[in-house]
Amino acid sequence: MINVVKRRSKGDVVFNIINYTVFILITLICVYPFYYIFINTISSNDLSANGQIIFYPQQIHFSNYLRVFQLSGLGTAAIVSVLRTVIGTIAAVFGSAVLGFLFTKDMWHKKFWYRFVVLTMYFNAGLIPQFMTFRMLGLTNNFLVYVLPAIVGPFNVILVKTYIESLPPSLEEAAEIDGAGVMTVFSKIVFPLIKPIIATIAIFSAVGQWNSFSDTLIYITDSHLYTLQYILYTYINQANSLASMVKQVSGNNTAESITNAVTAITPTSIKMTVTMIVVLPILFVYPFFQKYFTKGIMIGAIKG
């Protein structure tokens, strides 16, 4: 066998260098904000408050995390956030998958209902009518307000419908000839084949559920239903008073009663630490779905 070695031209080399350089810069721009927040949480609080921590940590310590976890409400908010993310994501994936599949079948006034669902992407009644509707349905101060409105997402339905239409029709026809019903075809044939788009929707839904705080702000007054993002919102707005609170809590502990400029809690350290605690968990979602994500979003975006 003759090994053919392809020689790269100077233009190819220059293009690759520019390409890699641009992508490395973009990566650094995306990663640096998280790195900046993290190094500020473990560095001297005095230096961090003065804006002197830019590229590397100084006088490293981890007392900020220990003190922030002493703040009331974080544990309950974490449980609520995890529950709404898990339950809301499962509900959104199931609702979008089923509805997207049904829109590929012969159903009563299919075009009308599909266009009606798509129309909701562009128009809504407004905040006040929506609040009045939710209150009439008993969803205010109710955990279900986090889950029910997100079950059917028009964009997710479009992705699923388009992805299913890209599959060979012969797969469903063969199952129907063998006597399989609609839901059997969906659960045994279609659903296993649409895992890439399901993973894509799961990522969208999980990130949306985890990061949402406006629904808590509008519909929830019960502190037992507060989410981490809402706690972050309130903590950032009340960072000065929280810094004093944490100092008082730490002062009750003789081991922490003697503080210095390195570990003394500040509004900046409160903001940075709480932000890091809220952001980190959702970052671990991506590695589990990454292999499906690109394929799902690309194929789901192409009409078959």
Q: Which consecutive residue ranges, at least 5 long each, have pLDDT under 50?
A: 252-261, 300-304
Structural class: mainly alpha
Strand tally, please? 0
Looking at CATH, which topology of the largest domain would you report? MetI-like fold
How much helix is in the residues?
A: 55-70%
Number of domains: 2
Mean pLDDT: 77
| Strand content range | under 5%
**What is the annotated CATH architecture of the largest domain?**
Orthogonal Bundle
CATH superfamily of the largest domain: MetI-like
Identify the overall geometry. flat
Largest sheet: none
Distance between the termini: 41 Å
Rg over CA atoms: 25 Å
Q: Number of helix segments?
A: 15
Q: What is the level 1 CATH name of the largest domain?
A: Mainly Alpha
Strand/helix succession: HHHHHHHHHHHHHHH
Oligomeric state of the chains present here: single chain
